[in-house]
Amino acid sequence: MIEVHDLSKRYGAKTAVDHLTFSVQPGRITGFLGPNGAGKSTTMRLILGLDRPQSGTATIDGVRYADLREPLRKVGALLEARAVHTGRSAYNHLLCLAQSQGLPRKRVEESLALVGLTEVAKKRAGGFSLGMGQRLGIAAALLGDPQVLILDEPVNGLDPEGVLWIRNLMKALAAAGKTIFVSSHLMSEMAQTADHLVVIGRGALIADESVDAFIARSSDHSVLVRTPQPSQLAKELERTPAEGEADGVTVATAEDGSLIVRGMTAQEIGEKAAAARVVLHELTPQRASLEEAFMEMTRGSVEYHADLESQTGGAGAAGGGIADAVPPGFAPPGAVPPGAAPPAALPSQDRAEPAVPTSGSEAAE
Amino acid sequence: MTAATPDAPATVSAGRPAEGRRSAAFPRLLAMEWTKFRSVRSTVWSLLAFVILTLGLSVLFTWLTTSQWSKMDPTQQLAYRRDPTGNILGSGFVLGQLAICVLGVMVITSEYSTGMIRASVLAAPRRTPMLAAKALVFAVVTFVVGEIVSFGAFFLAAPILHSKVPVSLGDKGVLRALLGAGLYLMMLGLFALAIGTLIRHTAGAITGVIAFVEVLAPLAQLLPGSLGKHVHAYLPTEAGHLVAQSAPGTNDLLSAWQGFGVFCLWTAVLLIAAGWVLKRRDA
After folding, report:
1. Interface predicted TM-score (ipTM) of this complex, two decimals
2. Can you give the pTM of this predicted structure?
3. In this structure, are strands A179-184 and A148-152 parallel, antiparallel, or unpaired?
4. Is residue B249 a contact partner of residue B83, using CB atoms and an 8 Å limit?
């Protein structure tokens, strides 16, 4: 089991990892999700003792990585950046790593065979393609038959066959009771592979829950409504909770004056509008893809938490579910004019959140 | 935690043989570093180049000296008579030692430039034992190769010089100088390794080492009076190479072993700094 507690890392003025706390359980694949620059690689480097955190701890079965006596027998790691001397053959690369852990040469051959590099074992790693380099990295990770695997973007550079192979490999290892912690910036990839998700944005935790729960929450849909009487319709929709809908309805106003309604079907909205004698110009169900939902959710999440805390006295701090993290005025990207700020968060006040790009916070990479 | 966790905790490994076997770890790191060293073509080639270059230059310079002997300055002739061994070795080593400097730097900086350092640090997360193992492997290699070269150069060049300055292994200080030449090269390699670890970038580190070896000495001599003389005498390679001379020079402030001791101190301080920095820095 990997346990991360209150982990923080700054590079100069930039905070790459911001008080992260989560744990990774054995026997399943835990996906580590976040946009590029969210701090995934940094978090993994901190767990592996490559970087020193400013605060917090990261342990593997209760032991810091740096205190492991034979670390490669306990933890296998694939880093995003290559960690192979270009002038050394694949065989010798694995051999020197095996020797450092007291592993027999047989393990080197087994690992090479497992990733399908036996034929090029004596070739210089510098001449390997991206996919072959990735396979060599995976061979190094599996060398010590470790209990814990930490894989940073393992499908990078792999062909479709390779992607399928690594997916099945991870599933088999998880089924064998191993702890698998695998990062990706692609929601679609994680949806097919992971059992559990840890989602971060700008170094802070956004979600730590099962994939099913994540999908259930982030794929709910909204309805775009255009009307000449928006405030009247908004009041009407929010006043009466829809039948069978426990959580009520939220209405947000987009910049062009249209309404984004969540928690209600287009049919219900149309019926309500007719009953209230409100004219409708457009009534379009919007369905965000998982990918879009994820991107919207991770964008500007830190600012959102700060605002919410000041408004509600600390409720919904980092560590809450997705519902806390999704800006209430969330709308599919298509509903917002390009370059415009996301729609106002609350219907009563026209608070505009700037769309802050999340890239660039991972300075050390 | 709503996801399924099938029969997981049972497989968590308890009581691996890893704990409490610290003594076994260092020989493993030595094996690792030896494999790293021998499995990269560039290191093997640089060592070969060093051997051929140094032997060739020693023979060439000695042959030139003997053929020009009658035209030489009497003070130069005197210097040859006083320390024939040091002159034989010095002529080839002046250039040959640069190969050792480059190799010492590259042994660590190539790990940084290729990213191998991350694999190394993952395998040896306490880091300083890895540096110690690397230093020991490299020291043994440079010492052995250095001795081959110094004895080789002597046995090739001494017969050429014989007609002008007879010198044999049994002469006073000769054996010490030949052994000392290997020790000097070994220490020079470690010196370069330490600077490479501190600077991490190949070009910068090589520049740094060359500055110590080739640039600082003439600069120090420009300092006025005895200050310049003292600074010059205590520079790492100026002090260190005294051990590779069979007889002390007329102006030497330090004896052969004192000089080597000064070089060892420089190297030790830099290696400790390198270990400290390696442990503290992000890899």
Report:
1. 0.87
2. 0.78
3. parallel
4. yes
CATH of A2-216, one of 3.40.50.460, 1.20.120.1460, 3.40.50.300, 3.40.50.1370: 3.40.50.300
* Range(s) of the domain holding residue B63: 27-280
Structure tokens at A80: 């995003």
- Going by C-alpha positions, the residue among A31, A301, A293, A326 that lies closest to residue A185 is A31
Residues of A within 8 A of B10 (CB-CB) are 177
Choose, out of B22, B107, B122, the residue to mutate when testing the contact with A (most A CBs < 10 Å): B122
Question: pLDDT (tens digit, 9 = 90+) per residue, B249-273?
Answer: 777 889 999 999 999 999 999 999 9
A324 near A231, Cβ under 8 Å?
A: no
- Whether domain A220-287+327-350 has CATH 3.30.70: the reply is yes
Q: How far apart are CA B62 and CA B159, in angstroms?
A: 10
How many angstroms separate the first and last alpha carbons of chain A? 26
Q: Measured between alpha carbons, how far is A180 from A1 in angstroms, rounded to an integer?
A: 9
Bridge pairing between strands A148-152 and A222-226: unpaired
Nearest chain A Cα distance for residue B122, angstroms: 7
A6 vs A146: CA distance, rounded Å? 26
Sequence spans of domains, chain A: 2-216, 220-287+327-350
Residues of A in contact with B117 (CB under 8 A): 83
Residues A182, A77: Cα–Cα separation, whole Å: 10
Q: List the structure tokens of A26.
A: 């054995």
In the numeric block, the tokens 């991360």 are attached to A4
| A179-184 vs A222-226, strand pairing mode | unpaired
